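Thread title: Can someone regenerate the structure for this chain?

I was given the following input by a collaborator and told the matching structure tokens would be attached. They weren't. Posting the sequence so someone can regenerate them.
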Amino acid sequence: MAKTTLPASLRALQHRDFRAFWVGQLVSLVGTWMQSVGQAWLVLELTNSPFKLGLVSTLQFGPFLVFSFFAGALVDRLVKRRVIMATQTLLLAQSATLTVLVWSGHVQYWHVAVLASVYGLANTLDMPARQAFIVELVGKADLMNAITLNSAAFNAARVLGPAAAGLLIARFGVAPAFALNALSFVAVIVALLIMRAEGLPQPRSRGSLLADILEGVSYATRTPRVLFVLSLLLGVGLFVFNYNIVVPLLARGVLHQDAGGFGVLMAMLGGGALLGAITLALLGLPRPPVWLLVAPGVVVSVAMLAVGFVNHFWVAAAMLLVMGYAGILFMTGCNTTVQLTVPDQLRGRMMSLYTFVFVGVTPAGSFLVGTIAEHLGPRAAFIASGGLGLVSVIVVMAWWKSRRRERPAG
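Best answer:
Regenerated them for you:
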């Protein structure tokens, strides 16, 4: 692949195909975050119900819980570039439909719920395909840097998208946020069209999808490092990473902010994550150590718990900055550990399992947070989420330490 000279912290961008993919994703992700803010605000405007906001999130992420294993087995059998083209086109259509409904004045809560489900179905296939495609764009030597740069793009978008969405919503309503998201998918589609890499499936024995799924699950359960990472993800993903629920509740229900204040809070969360991604790029670690998984998991859980006691806007914003910073260290470390551990022929299945654990449990977490907030108030939801996340990290780390004592060479 053609390369250009860049600093070591940006070395993955030397690869032409990854460079095109990264730029396209950056543009698209700004739109995605704009839609995320717009959707949450729209639901609260239509219903004023934390429970219904949590239900939309459950519908949006529910397909991951049901179809992730099947999607991973498909990704290992199909040409990844074509899969991503198809899913990005479907996501464009979803955003365009929501735009038309809002602009026409006919949008209802059930429309948002159905379209959230469509979004979830498309992403169930899109996410493991994109995750598995990255290594084919850069190779294993530059994989951690590529994942870090993807995280930087994701969180730069999380700064720009919510801030822009907050300003747009306050002045023009939610429709422009959805419209710009629909247009942003064009950037990824163009990037995919100009790529040389196809993401061809690895040679494999002929077998059923069920056999492929069972092979992936078996590998994960008998590989200690993968099982450790997935266990951490399960706890923190279930209890803590419900930002699409807790931040709008914090803005509206605790701090009494309008859409502009909500956008600022989301931007602070993204700003912290962007700083975390820059830190990882500058460190240039080839493989994340265990402490880079556990310590950020503890910090993000404690910060979530602390938000439950905050009354001042800028104190809350500072806590979200910390959560964003620790959260990206945790997520990037987990993702890289799994990708560097798994064999190529299982990569799609392992990344779908990763997605299942990290994203698929979000519906349960969103439902839990929404229900607690509905009955006990938002503060109770933050305290419960942070406390349970902290307990889960401590339990998993205790298991890992006991296992290392029993089998030091494992």
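The radius of gyration is 20 Å.
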